[in-house]
Design goal:
2 domains; four-stranded antiparallel β-sheet
């Protein structure tokens, strides 16, 4: 066994964790290939959502989140990573090549982050108010570079709700979008999509003013749980440019924020519905600093006392990872 490159079993462990990353409608639009000590990440165009995401922006953003999850996983496994993003150009499905160095020394926080990968889930229910200092600490820990994070003020809430309503109204009679939404959300596939028990109920829908209008979920709210409106804090992920490299960076930052919030015991829900259509995206741009391009939002808050939703399904690792025969 080489000590200079990870063997295929280590790679499978890391990819399994990477694929716990969030993706638009849990489509998991990525494929990994490991050969001669290099791990390549490709976007899987067959899993692109044509009506929801015709430009492929959210597909690349999802892959960026998986790429950051992978880096976290390898650090905990004591391998450093050297990531070359978009090695074949801005229009290629080849999004990144990862090479490795042995002997990384993970800190305790690195192990907290890798544990958060398994604990994290998208909580679409109404959330309670998080501690302001903790929220700002989460934002401050996130890396800087091609993507930025902004903690939105409570006054921006009406702007976000307006963008949500506009987005929902524009797509209410969009047959292709609605059919795609119902295919991915609310069915019972064992490997992809959003199961009904992970969606908000009919009663909870109006209490989450900033959220995609999914089909109603199947969970019931236990007696004694207060019916309060969502009081989460919203983080905005934005970029200075609006192309594939920026989308990949936004996905990476999205992953950083979600894992940091999970380490602090908070629930999260990434949102992209208000950045899909020009009209609602322009509204969000009004609260984006320095004229940046809004890419995604994250609701962060305390979970309601009724137990977490069931984990969303994942494709088996062998379906998203190819290992060259020379490395087996």
């Amino acid at each position: 066994m080489s000590t200079r490159i990870p063997d295929s079993d280590v790679v499978r462990m890391a990819v399994d964790l990477a694929c716990r990353a969030p993706s638009v409608h849990n489509s998991q639009p990525w494929h990994w290939r490991y050969e001669t000590g290099a791990l390549d990440l490709h976007a899987d165009a067959t899993r692109m959502l044509a009506a929801t995401d015709p430009s492929g922006r959210q597909l690349v953003l999802s892959c960026g989140a998986a790429l950051h999850h992978l880096e976290v996983a390898f650090t905990a496994l004591k391998w450093s990573t050297d990531v070359r993003r978009l090695p074949d150009g801005a229009h290629s499905d080849h999004l990144a090549t990862v090479r490795f160095g042995h002997g990384a020394r993970p800190a305790s926080h690195d192990f907290d982050l890798v544990a958060a990968i398994r604990r994290r889930y998208s909580d679409r229910r109404p959330l309670g108010t998080p501690d302001t200092a903790i929220t700002r600490s989460i934002a401050s820990r996130a890396g800087t570079g091609a993507a930025q994070v902004t903690v939105l003020s409570p006054e921006a809430r009406s702007v976000l709700a307006d963008a949500t309503e506009r987005s929902a109204a524009l797509r209410r009679y969009d047959t292709s979008y609605q059919e795609e939404l119902r295919w991915w959300a609310g069915h019972t596939t064992k490997t992809t999509g959003i199961p009904p028990e992970a969606l908000v109920t009919t009663e909870q829908h109006p209490r989450v003013d900033v959220g995609r209008r999914f089909p109603a979920g199947s969970r019931t709210t236990p007696e004694g749980v207060p019916a309060e409106d969502d009081a989460s804090t919203v983080l905005l992920v934005s970029t200075s440019a609006d192309e594939r490299h920026s989308w990949l960076a936004a996905g990476r930052l999205l992953s950083e924020l979600l894992l940091e919030a999970t380490v602090h015991g908070l629930s999260t829900c990434p949102l992209t519905h208000v950045t899909e259509l020009p009209g609602s995206r322009e509204i969000i741009a009004g609260v984006t600093p320095d004229g940046g391009c809004p890419q995604a939002l994250i609701r962060i808050g305390t979970a309601v006392p009724e137990g977490r939703p069931a984990p969303t399904p994942r494709l088996p690792t062998e379906a998203v990872l190819s290992v060259a025969s020379s490395r087996r």
